[in-house]
Amino acid sequence: MPEENWRACKAVLERPERRTTTSNARVWLGSGLYRCGVDGCTETMRCSTSGKGSGHAHLPAYRCRTGKHVTRVAGPLDEHIANLVLVRLSRPDAASALLPPARRGASREALAATANALRGKLEGYTQDYAADLITRQQMLDGTALIRKRLEKAEAEMNAQAQGNVLAGLPLGTARVVDEWPGYHLDKKRAIVDALMTVTIMPARRGRPAGFQPGVTKTYFNPDAVRIDWKTPQ
Based on C-alpha coordinates, what's the Rg of the chain? Predict the structure, then answer.
C-alpha cells in the first residue's frame, strides 16, 4: 500500500480501542477520541455500560481511562458531537474552508518519497558513525536536522490525509445530514477526528436546573464539553 494511503487509514486502524475481541469501544463515536478535561490528565475516554459512579445505572457512559475522573452519559454526548459535525459540514462555505489550498503544495507521492529519502539519510548517519566515518557530534547534528525535515514532511502528509477524509463528502449541502446515519462508525470517527478535539470537562456539583428525580432520566450540559476545532470556523 502506498504510504499516503496508509497514513489516511492509520489514525483509525491503530487506535488502542480497535481490538479483535468484541467490545463497546467499537460501538460508540468517541471511544479513544474524547479526552478527559481534568487538569493534568492526558487520557482519553472509554465507554462502558456499568452504572458505577455515573448515577445512571445501565446507561452506556464515557469514563476517563484512569477510572477516577470525568464520566458522561454516552448517548446525548455523541448526539451533540454529531450535530456539531453536521452543522459544520453542511454550511455553504464547508468545501472552501475545510478543503484548503494546501493541495497546491507538494503532491502526496512527492512527500512520501521525500520522507522515505530522509529516513534513509537517518539510517546512513547511524551506519557512518558505527563505521567511524563521522564523529558522534556530526551524527547528532546531522540527525537533528534531518528529523526536523522529516517531521515537516510527515505533518504535511497527515494534513493531506485529514483532507482526504472530508474530500469525498457532499460538503455544503443537506445531503451530508441525510447520509450521516449510513456512514460506517470508523468513517464517522475519522470525520470527527479531522474536524475537532473533544474534551469532556468535570461536571459541576449539585443537581442541574430542570432536573426532576424520577422524571428526568439523563441531563446533558453542552457547556461542559470543550470543542477545539482543527479547521477554520
Answer: 22
| CA neighbor of 185 nearest in space, from 58, 15, 67, 57 | 15
> In which domain, by residue range, is 166 found?
100-170
Average pLDDT for 51-74: 78
Closest C-alpha to 12, from 199, 228, 184: 184
Whole-prediction pTM: 0.62
Tens-digit pLDDT profile for residues 101-151: 544 556 777 888 898 999 999 999 999 999 999 999 999 999 999 999 999
Evaluated on CA atoms 30, 78, 200, 63, the torsion sign reads negative
Query: Average pLDDT of the chain?
Result: 80
Q: Which runs of consecutive H residues, i.e. helices, occur in 65-135?
A: 74-90, 94-98, 108-130
* 156 within some domain: yes
Same domain, 37 and 94: yes
Cβ distance 63 to 46 under 8 Å? Answer: yes
Helices within the chain (DSSP H only): 3-13, 74-90, 94-98, 108-130, 136-167, 175-179, 185-195
